Amino acid sequence: MNAVPLPFVRTVEVTIDGRTVRVPEGTTIINACKTIGIDTPTLCYLENLTPVNVCRVCVVEVEGSRVLVPACSRPVDPGMVIHTDSDRVRHSRKLVFELLGSSVDLSTAEPRFKADMEKYGAAPERLAPSGHSDHGAPATVQQPVKIDNDLYVRDYSKCVLCYKCVEACGTDAQHTFAIAVAGRGFGATISTEFDTDLPDSACVYCGNCIGVCPTGALMFKTEHDMRAAGTWDESRQTATDTICPYCGVGCTLSLHVQDNTIVKVTSPNDHDVTEGHLCIKGRFGWQFVQNR
């Protein structure tokens, strides 16, 4: 049997925060940083989605570059000198966090988002418009929570326009293209076609948009109802991995359980089969477990 030749992969040498690193050609800055344990803050980036470069939280300083560059999508070049924690980088990240925090409701954002805001000393309340409370009420035009189905709700007052849901609904996962960005500037929002209700749209209720949302703008209706009732408590929840029983694909489900009741279902981003994405049955078809 003839041996299959291994593909030749060139490596490039770069300097990150004074440390020399060799990585495969084409590696992004964010992944090059990971090789030496540098954790870069991100918002619109996920390993299982195509980078869209919209949040600018991950920017780093590259010597010779006039502007800060997004680490999530910029590939390294031979001899590149990168600074991930310079005063310029920290100031930029702080301002981005402050601008986001002053315009939307981040009360249900991921814990990492809040931790990063504290790390960079972001104070969104200093950018709050006059007339708001001392705590800096969000400046986003308040709009009612959209509840038009029994599976998930949409609260766009919490949306930071990270585009993750659009990418997951599009070519990166579902290929349904039920949602897109409508409007421009401060009036931009995530919307179905012609802003129609979900039941009348192209949505197939896979829930992959919920799985990637970092702020709770898209949320399981079970979680939304429990939060409204004051019973949602993640400290009392456990997550157990199992295999979806509906077909033979073999998707891994992470069952989030509180008080012996399944409250939501996710899938690991690093799972070979799902890469974090599920269909409507895997994401929402667990109610039969409660009806025993």
Q: What does the model show?
A:
This protein has 8 helices and 12 strands. It is globular. The chain folds into 3 domains: about 10-85, Ubiquitin-like (UB roll) (Roll); about 90-125, no CATH class; about 150-290, Single Sheet (N-terminal domain of TfIIb), CATH 2.20.25.90. The longest helix has 17 residues, at about 85-105. The chain is of the alpha+beta class. The relative contact order is 0.10. The protein has helices at about 30-35, 85-105, 110-120, 165-170, 210, 220-230, 280-285, 285-290, and strands spanning about 10-15, 20-25, 60, 70, 80-85, 150-155, 180, 190, 220, 235-245, 250-260, 260-265. Helix content is about 20%, strand content about 20%. The protein has a 5-stranded mixed β-sheet with strand order 2-1-5-3-4. Strand 3 (about 60) and strand 4 (about 70) form a beta hairpin.
